[in-house]
Design brief:
This protein has 184 residues and is an alpha+beta fold. It has a single domain, classed as Aminopeptidase. The chain has 6 helices and 7 strands; from the N terminus they run E-H-H-E-E-H-H-E-H-E-H-E-E. Strands 1-2-3-4-5-7-6 form a 7-stranded mixed β-sheet. It binds coenzyme A (COA).
Length: 184
């Protein structure tokens, strides 16, 4: 049974279904987030970034259920995450992977029961399709071994490890070159 993959077009009920998936997935270790809080955080994030350049929320549907989500947008100086990551990187690394602007993958999640069936790879491909950037970047918890294996398997490069944002757990940063596939 194949999933249907669509870019979210603004429907509130669909967004609520995505938030439910987000709350379920990030209640798992190593994230251990409070489902109510993380649901709110996800919705705030979508509303905050909706006007950002190249904003996309990609949803995978199985019947009426959201079984995967991928969220991202273009970033430049002034972006909250970028402004906290760049100072922790060697200048050349920051220039190579984040440049003046790049695409930031903010969230990626597959429903536990649907994992390792290709959903993550498919929604990520739709998220990154045709973007006007030469690189995409993201951070992952260092302890999130399945996620790290997933990014490595999908061609991402580990750009940096041992980073933190404020009191966060240790993070690593991954980068992907988009030039070959999509950018000018
Ligand atoms: C990371 C995540 C989105 C991957 O989604 P997915 O739908 O399972 O991904 P795919 O089926 O496309 O890819 C699976 C591949 O990723 C790697 N992988 C994923 N989970 C793995 C695990 N538990 N152990 C080893 N490899 C794993 C493998 O290469 C795997 O291929 P294989 O099954 O042939 O060995 C999913 O595990 C998830 O939602 N995790 C919790 C949330 C999260 O960590 N998000 C990322 C935040 S940065």
């Amino acid at each position: 049974m194949e999933e249907t993959i669509r870019i979210w077009a603004g429907d509130a009920a669909e967004l609520a279904a995505a938030a439910d998936l987000y709350a379920t997935v990030f209640a798992e270790l190593p994230y251990d987030e409070n489902p109510q809080q993380s649901r709110t955080t996800f919705l705030d994030r979508v509303h905050r970034y909706r006007s950002a350049p190249d904003f996309r929320l990609v949803l995978a549907w199985h019947d009426d259920e959201v079984v995967g989500l991928a969220l991202g947008n273009g970033i430049a100086a002034g972006d909250w995450w970028r402004d906290r990551i760049v100072p922790q990187l060697p200048k050349t690394t920051a220039a190579e992977w984040l440049g003046d602007e790049c695409f930031s993958v903010i969230e990626l999640a597959t429903a536990p029961a649907r994992r390792r069936g290709g959903v993550g790879a498919k929604i990520l491909a739709v998220l990154l399709d045709g973007l006007p950037y030469s690189t995409a970047v993201l951070s992952a918890y260092s302890d999130a071994e399945p996620a790290r294996r997933f990014y490595r398997a999908n061609g991402w490069t580990e750009v940096a490890t041992g980073l933190r944002i404020g009191e966060s757990p240790e993070l690593c940063v991954y980068g992907l070159r988009l030039d070959d596939a999509d950018a000018d």
